[in-house]
Amino acid sequence: MMLSYFTALGLLAGAALAVNPVVMKGADFVDSTTNNRVMVIGVDYQPGGQSGYDPGSGVDPLSNGTVCLRDAALMQDLGLNTIRVYNVDPDLNHDQCASIFNEVGIYMIVDVNSPLGGESIDRSNPSGSYTASYLNRTFAVVEAFKGYPNTMAFFAGNEIINDVPTSKANPPYIRAVQRDLKNYIAKHSSRSIPVGYSAADVREVLQDTWAYLQCAIDGNDKDVSRSDFFGLNSYSWCGDQATFQSAGYDALVSMFSATTIPVFFSEYGCNTPSPRVFNEVQALYGPQMTTLSGGLVYEFTQETSNFGLINVNDNGTASLLVDYDNLQSQMSKLNVTLLQSSNASQTQAQPPACSSGVVSSSQFGANFTLPSTPSGAQDLINNGLSNPQQGKVVQVSSTQVPMSVYATNGSQIEGLAIKPLQGNQANTPNQAGTSGGSASNTPAPKHSGATGLASHMPGVFLVGLFSCIIVLVL
Ligand SMILES: *[C@@H]1O[C@H](CO)[C@@H](O)[C@H](O)[C@H]1NC(C)=O
Ligand SMILES: *[C@@H]1O[C@H](CO)[C@@H](O)[C@H](O)[C@H]1NC(C)=O
Ligand SMILES: *[C@@H]1O[C@H](CO)[C@@H](O)[C@H](O)[C@H]1NC(C)=O
Ligand SMILES: *[C@@H]1O[C@H](CO)[C@@H](O)[C@H](O)[C@H]1NC(C)=O
Ligand SMILES: *[C@@H]1O[C@H](CO)[C@@H](O)[C@H](O)[C@H]1NC(C)=O
Ligand SMILES: *[C@@H]1O[C@H](CO)[C@@H](O)[C@H](O)[C@H]1NC(C)=O
Ligand SMILES: *[C@@H]1O[C@H](CO)[C@@H](O)[C@H](O)[C@H]1NC(C)=O
């Protein structure tokens, strides 16, 4: 009896809060319930750095709920609504971390690859690395993350083209992996989850890469090999003197003005000079750049490459860096009402039909005859993985951050905690002058029947309600 009581309670409370899944409409990400446009206001999250990924260790960036609690509290304070996570181990349990981010209204964009051999397309040997065993790993990542409502999207590839020579043979492999992932998701996920690509800023072939990936083969808009969105890793805005023109943001806006899929910065934040002032935030979310859907700052934790917002100290505490304060001050100047009220496209845009004419560089291999799915991988698509690790939202056991976090002036931050959001909303930047205002400027929840009611109520209230029912039954 007690067991089933707690099980039921856990299920109910666990379902108490969930962000509305994101869908694509035309060139926008859109909240599937409110139809508001969703701008990506995010950060790249890879504590331990790329070299920190070690599948034998039992640890990845989303495996330790205590660490995620600390980082989610800080990201909520920064006003972020999205993280990108590279290098996850699909065999680990990510329930606590994913649920914590879900409760504070932070979406996750997950890379299905890792830098280890056999776990990504090798850009110098695409045909040799496009194997059933590689795809097996990518499907395992889908299985691990498809059950979380805040899984916003998957990156099928990152910088598989990283110079002009690699734009020759590699493009069809990007589309092939997208096709396989989307076929897997269509068959084995209860909701559709967008799949796209994260591009290096190789200006000679950037427009070609986007054009090659967004078009529909045979003009068929059901073509699953096309990208659902296009991420650009962009480091061209350097220092507080940079401008919309000098950073070339004007060129990007004009390059992507006819996009039929969302385009956003999958990494941004040039770090010379340092500390960063992040005044590109005002340009990125301003009226001149509504073509783009926002971006992700590279990156949350300080690693050897020096892009961090916080430093994780050896004794398990963390210290905010000046970049953290500077980013927060820029975020607090954004007009969230304006960002959310900008009209989202309400229809799918018709993608252009693929033809060699969509690209302009003679060096770019615009081959639309894709490599066929390895037969072992086609079996996995048809039948699903056997006994995969599948994530699910769970009750978050604690809101208080247990470890010390120090502000930039060295003093310890008191009472650091996550503030679960009501009403299935994404987190938003605090307006200037307020602190922890995310919950207070959240619109009133919309109710939609019995399940909707349960899903909009705070867990604490439900626990009380449910206890009463149990007592009555007993
Ligand atoms: C997929 O991975 C599982 C678990 O690691 C393994 O048992 C299976 O043989 C793999 N299948 C293929 C086709 O690589
Ligand atoms: C942990 O390390 C940081 C950085 O070295 C230091 O500032 C802080 O005082 C230490 N905290 C504890 C509790 O030892
Ligand atoms: C999670 O991280 C905390 C803080 O670094 C550490 O004390 C704890 O041992 C970790 N938990 C696990 C299960 O690794
Ligand atoms: C933010 O944008 C909204 C909608 O356009 C507008 O009504 C409001 O005045 C703006 N707020 C500020 C502080 O500019
Ligand atoms: C949104 O679309 C409506 C109807 O097309 C239009 O009247 C309104 O001005 C638009 N609002 C914005 C902020 O573009
Ligand atoms: C295009 O890719 C297909 C499949 O990998 C291959 O058979 C064909 O030779 C390629 N075409 C060109 C022109 O490279
Ligand atoms: C240090 O910074 C924190 C956070 O900005 C602030 O609340 C606190 O008052 C500051 N402490 C001192 C001694 O300046």
UniProtKB/TrEMBL annotation:
The record's listing under Pfam families reads: Glyco_hydro_72
Write one Gene Ontology MF term: 1,3-beta-glucanosyltransferase activity
In residue numbers, the region (Disordered) covers: 422-450
Q: Give the location in the cell.
A: Cell membrane
Q: Which Gene3D superfamilies match?
A: Glycosidases
What keyword terms does UniProt attach to this protein?
Glycoprotein, GPI-anchor, Hydrolase, Lipoprotein, Membrane, Signal, Transferase
* Bias kind Polar residues: ranges: 422-443
Q: What residue range is the signal peptide?
A: 1-18
On whether Phosphoprotein is a keyword of this UniProt record, the answer is no
Q: What is its EC number?
A: 2.4.1.-
SUPFAM superfamilies, alphabetized: (Trans)glycosidases
* Highest taxon of the lineage: Eukaryota
| Cellular component GO terms, alphabetical | plasma membrane; side of membrane
Mark the transmembrane ranges: none
| Biological-process GO terms, alphabetical | fungal-type cell wall (1->3)-beta-D-glucan biosynthetic process; fungal-type cell wall organization
Membrane topology annotation: Lipid-anchor; GPI-anchor
Q: Which family does it belong to?
A: Belongs to the glycosyl hydrolase 72 family.
Described by its record, this protein's role is as follows: Splits internally a 1,3-beta-glucan molecule and transfers the newly generated reducing end (the donor) to the non-reducing end of another 1,3-beta-glucan molecule (the acceptor) forming a 1,3-beta linkage, resulting in the elongation of 1,3-beta-glucan chains in the cell wall.
Name of protein: 1,3-beta-glucanosyltransferase
Species of origin: Viridothelium virens (Speckled blister lichen)
